[in-house]
Amino acid sequence: MEEMDKYSTIKKLIETAGNKKRAAITLNCSLRHINRLINGYKESGKEFFIHGNRGRKPVHTLDANTKQLILDLYCTKYPEANITHFCELLKKHENITVSTTTIRSILMQDFILSPKAKRATRKRIKAELKELQKATNSIKEIAKIQSSIIAAEDAHPRRPRCAYAGEMLQMDASVHLWFGNEKSQLHIAVDDATGAIVGAYFDSQETLNGYYHVLYQVLTDYGIPYMLFTDRRTVFEYKQKNSPSVEEDTFTQFSYACKQLGIEIKTSSVPQAKGRVERMFQTLQSRLPLEMRISGINTIEQANEFLNSYIKEFNAQFALPVDNIKSVFETQPDIEKINLTLAVLTSRKVDNGSCIKFKKNYYLPMDCNGHSVHYRKGTVGMVIQSFNGEIFLCVDEKVYALDLLPGHELSSKNFYLAVPNAQPRKRYIPPMSHPWKQDSFERYLNKQAHRNNSVA
User: Fold this and answer.
1) CA nearest 455: which of 250, 245, 255?
2) pLDDT the model gives residue 250
3) Domain locations in the chain?
4) Do 433 and 223 meet the contact criterion of CB atoms below 8 Å apart?
5) Rounded distance, CA 78 to CA 57, Å?
6) pTM
7) 363 three-state secondary structure
8) Short-list 209, 187, 185, CA closest to 198
9) Tens digits of per-residue pLDDT, 99-155?
10) Distances (CA, A) of 255 to 36, 259, 343
11) CATH superfamily placement of domain 169-336
12) Among 187, 181, 205, 198, which residue's Cα sits nearest to residue 289?
C-alpha cells in the first residue's frame, strides 16, 4: 500500500506540476526525498517504487522443515505443554532455539491454541472457525480446530504478598495424574513472600505422612516458619460432629507438633484464600507431568527423588530473588528434635505377656540400661513413632525404648555352645524435655473447648 501511495502521488505531481511541499507532507518525507522519487520515476517508471526485498525471505526466517518439526513435536511429544514451557523444552531437549512469538504463530497457522490461551483469543478463534465453517464443508478440519480449543480454568483473585520470607507458608495437596497410570497426591508448601516451593512430597493419598515430610524439608532446609496457611483438612483441624460449640477443634497431631515448634496455623475453607498455592498447582499440573514423563518416572519413590532436583530448577526460574526480602525463619532445630516432634502417636495397652502390639508385631519395653520393664496387663501407654522410624513407649512421665519380639529364638540353649552372658546393650531414651509426654499431650487435649462443653 505504501508503494502504491508513493507511485500515485509522484505520478500526479509530475503530470499536474503540483506542489512538492504538499507531496512531502502527504508522504511524510523531505523535499530531497521527493526529488529522488521524481528522478526515479522518470528513469524506471513504476518499477522504481517496488521494494528491493520483495519476494525475499529474511535472513533469520525459519525454513519449512524446522517449522514442520516444531509442529510435529508439539502434536506428538509435547502436546500438553503451554507455549512458554514448549519453548524451554525445545531448547533443552531438541536444541531448537526459537521465541515464544514464533512458536505461537506456527501453531496458530494450524489453529492450535495453548492450554493457557486467554479468553479473548479463544473467542477470536471461534469467530474465525464460524467463518471457516461457512466457507468450507470440511467437517474433519473443523473438528480438528474445535478439539484444540481448551476451556480455561477459573481465575483466582490476587492479594499482596507477605513482607518477609517465612512469615506465611501456604500448604496444600493436589490429586492429579502426575506420573504413570494412577493418580497421586502432591503435597507442597509455598512461601508467600518469594513464591518459592520450600517443600514437596508425593504420596498415594493426602495424609499426615505427606505433610510431615513437607514440614521436615522446611525445618531442615530453612528453619521454623511463623505461620502455616492451610485448608480445613482433618490433618490440621476438625470440628466434632453434633457439637453445639462453634469453636474449631485443633485435636490433631500435626497441630500439636506445630504448637511445640511455635508455628501458628491458619485455616480457610475457601480455595481462593490460598491463591498462591492454588496457582502454583495450576503451573505444576501444566509442566511437571510432562517433565516426569520425559524422565521416565513411574513410581512414587522415583517421583520424590526427581522432585529434589526439579524444585531447585523451578524456584530458580519462577521464585522471586531473596536479596531484598528479609527472612523471619527461626533457627533450624536439631535433627533429634525434628524426629521426635514430627511423630505419630498411638494409644496401646500392655497385654498379659507384658508386651505392646503395634502394626502386627509385639514389642517389649526396655529401659536405658537395656533391661526389660514389665507392666501389669491393661496398663495404658502411648506408642511414639518418630519421623525416622524409631519406636518408643511413654507411660505417664516415663519413656522406654521398644525391642521387637521375634517369633522364634535366634539361637538354641540346648544345641549351641554356651556363650558368656553378654552385658545388656544400653538403649537411647529421649530426654524428658521432648514434646511427646503423655501427661502434657492429655493436658493439651483437655483444653479443647468442645470437649469441655461435651463433658459438662
Assistant:
1) 245
2) 47
3) 2-49, 169-336, 344-435
4) no
5) 29
6) 0.68
7) strand
8) 187
9) 888 888 888 887 788 777 778 888 887 787 777 767 665 666 656 555 555 443 444
10) 83, 6, 12
11) Ribonuclease H-like superfamily/Ribonuclease H (3.30.420.10)
12) 181
